[in-house]
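Changelog-adjacent note: as of this version, every example in the card shows the full chain rather than a window. The one below runs 377 residues end to end.
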Amino acid sequence: MKSTAILHLKNLFGSRAQGKLVAICLDDYGNVRLHSPEALAVLKKHQLPRRIHFDEFDALETAKDLELMFETLSSAKDSNGNCAKLTALTNVANVDFEKMKIGGFDNYCYELLPTTYGKLGKDYDNCMELWQQGIDNRLIKPEFHGREHLNLRILMTKLKHRDHDVLTCFSQNSLARLTEPAGTHASWTAAFEFDEIEELSEHQEIIADGIDCFEKVFGRSPNVFNAPGGKEHRRLYPFLKQQGIRIVERSFFHWAHQGRGRFRPSFGHMTAETALNPAISIRNCVFEPSSPSQVDWVTRTLKQIEVAFFWNRPAIISCHRVNFVGRICEKNREKGLSNLRNLLASIVSRWPDVEFEFLDDLCDRIGLLNNSSCHEN
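Full-length structure tokens:
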């Protein structure tokens, strides 16, 4: 009863939808976590701790991962004959491991996503071409998930002290199974958490540079921002709007970091774009089939969609790349895509009038944007 009440609470407030609209928002494309199965074996040998399932399965998406994802999205058609669509919250840069090793770890160096693909061998051939095919076919739309999926202050602090775990990761061109330095109140994967509020100026620099990187990689400006690891401070929102971001995407229950380990909890709802701030879009459904929870994820997500539609809200589904990649474990990808295919088939069967949308188009349709001038693909 408690979980059902929370589902309804998520949908009590915010803009209503004319029709049954579904957007799938997937985080973490573009981010290097585990380099390879061999790298994972080395991290285990050195007894780096496994904290979450991302540390076991998550790796940069391969060409095969993208091809199979597009096949799965194409398996379902909505009431307008359109395939399912994926709003891909993407990190467009990664650590340049080689350059940092040569420089003695004194300065941070990054590389753009196409460069990372080019370094990783035949499994990554044609990845950027596949991205473009998916964009052209309106199966996938990249949006901005930050420049990197890591907290630079934590990374550089650990490197300064020659931390054993981070040096082991660097030896394997990976960033996984790490912990935070003593006295730090931020997570190493949360790019915009901080100890002191003054660090927000550094975050603004990273965001501005990251959006420039996004434009270089994908040839357009992003409309949507979702912070890596969440917990971003609201003071960043006007700056994001100035940088052209029209929608900030976040979870219903948001822990906004205030510094020094203090957080301000808040419940979120869909709010419209203003002259000073982006619109706020809330994810009200979750789909994470690779998580260790013993859950029937198709049934669970369908229930969440049902509640959203009951309140005439759009269904905005949250998920992560780790569910659908197979570089570390092909069975992980098979399980995730099979569940996604079943979810999509069940959606169109149960709600024949459903419509799939990219998140920015959905927000425009329900009146969150102050005009219809979203950037084109």
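Structural remarks: Confidence is low (pLDDT under 50) at residues 372-377.
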